Predict the structure.
Amino acid sequence: MKNYNWVRFDWAMKRLLRNKANFAILEGFLSELLRRDIKIIKLLESESNQDYADDKFNRVDMLAEDETGEIFIIEVQNQSEIDYFHRMAYGTSKVITQFLDLGEHYQDIKKVYSVNIVYFDLGQGDDYVYHGTTDFYGIHKKDKLLLSKNQKIKFDKVEPRDIFPEYYVLKVNSFDDIAKDKLDEWIYYFKNSEIKESFQAKGMKKVKELLRYEKLTENEKISYDRHLENLRYKASMVWSMKAEEEIRITELATERGIQIGIEQGIEQGIEEGKMQEKKQLAAKLIATGMSIDEIASITGLTTEEINKLK
């Protein structure tokens, strides 16, 4: 039987890890991920760093800066978003421009790492940890573009990839629960909210000490329990809505398609039926308070189409 004495990492990021005394936990995780020692100096403020009371849709992220000035975007996402890759690209672009002051040179751009812990099947791939960088290769000679000697000296970089953002995607649900190294120990914790006695990853000792459920205040326990209930409710609602959507769209598309198809053709009628069903589903989701992005992801409607239903 699994031991659920430790709180989920996503909730801890919002409620506990913003305290500088607890930075060792984030430092440990980032050190194991990047395979070098990371020392966080401070958390950075941004729109996405605000702490909202209504967090039932769990849009969590954090900005941190290390001792070298490099910036980390750390985000946990529980619900599937079809445009999540676009969101990653936007996030790094926004951070780069946000922390380049007017009048500063381009060479002062911060190196940004986007670390994404996702609890859904993002993209198509069999691994559970992916790393993305920017490299340039010749289309004729197939050589790799490097920095010049002067650039290496001036910027203290070796390759263009050392300047461009880097992306990490941890597909938690794809992990097989077999911890083969210290990074796997962290992913095991992310997936199971459990820490085995044998785990020795950097920062894990602090997790064992600070993120135990019984150490929470009464108010924190209430907040955490509500967070878990919101996640369960959201997962159940999305599953039910999708199943219901598939059945209803098929039934309505057939009925509506036959009716309209008499005058306008079967194909146009089916499409009309599907659109009407999607709008009905979107209207129900709006009533639950779900965000526009979530509704668009589930129904396939555009933001403009959804806004017209309000």
Remarks:
- The chain has ten helices and six strands.
